[in-house]
Amino acid sequence: MLGSSAGLAGFPTVTEWRMTGTFPNISISTERLVLRPLDEDDVPALAEMMNDEQVGAWTDVPQPYSEDQARGWITQYAPAERESGRGINFAVTEFLTQRLVGVVQLAKTNWHVRSTELSYIIAPWARGEGYASEAALATAQWLFTDQKFERIELRTAADNTASQQVAQKIGCISEGVLRGACIAHVRADDGTWSDVRTDFIVWSLLPEDLDGAGDRLADTDGFTTYSDWN
């Protein structure tokens, strides 16, 4: 039996083979959007977006969400995530108006496996325009080409059909269900929030899955809901 602190003879220990890195502080452009680093000028729009009921329902963003919290995300949390190698946060803005559409976040990055977890939030006024799919696809293409990543993972709450549709449109494959692994939130008439346990659907995206993604973004048919296949 091997001791807990011993490595196999001739093999590197975990700390020796673990690769680390950091994402560059860059911008990514699409036909309609620019994904760029968050800036302090985004504070009011970010706070307003995070106070939406759908954001409160499907994320762990505190409710209500203040401008001080938005400023902390922009000036402290986001830089720390990138500098540590854990991930990167993008502000998603309209190319023409420069208005903040949403955010795309990469987190839990494993530089040895070349994998990361992707999530997205879109402002209420910008929903229904395909911005989430466009931003997620652009991020995936950048990861697979420029950053040489091999896997992207997404997790969507079982009843969050809008997020599931984004995953399917960019080519993600559903890998299974983590039963009871997600805490969603419900707001009562008096404004208080309560927790509701539900399932997580796990999706993966590999470089070869991007084939035909552009056609899928324009296709509103063929969407499969969680209840259809579970």
Automatic annotation (TrEMBL):
TM helices/strands, residue ranges: none
SUPFAM superfamilies named in the record: Acyl-CoA N-acyltransferases (Nat)
InterPro entries linked: Acyl_CoA_acyltransferase (IPR016181), GNAT_dom (IPR000182), Ribosomal_N-acetyltransferase (IPR051908)
GO cellular component terms listed in the entry, alphabetical order: cytoplasm
Taxonomy, superkingdom: Bacteria
A Pfam family hit: Acetyltransf_3
Domain N-acetyltransferase: start-end pairs: 33-189
Example of a GO MF term: protein-N-terminal-alanine acetyltransferase activity
Protein name in the entry: Acetyltransferase
Species lineage: Bacteria, Bacillati, Actinomycetota, Actinomycetes, Kitasatosporales
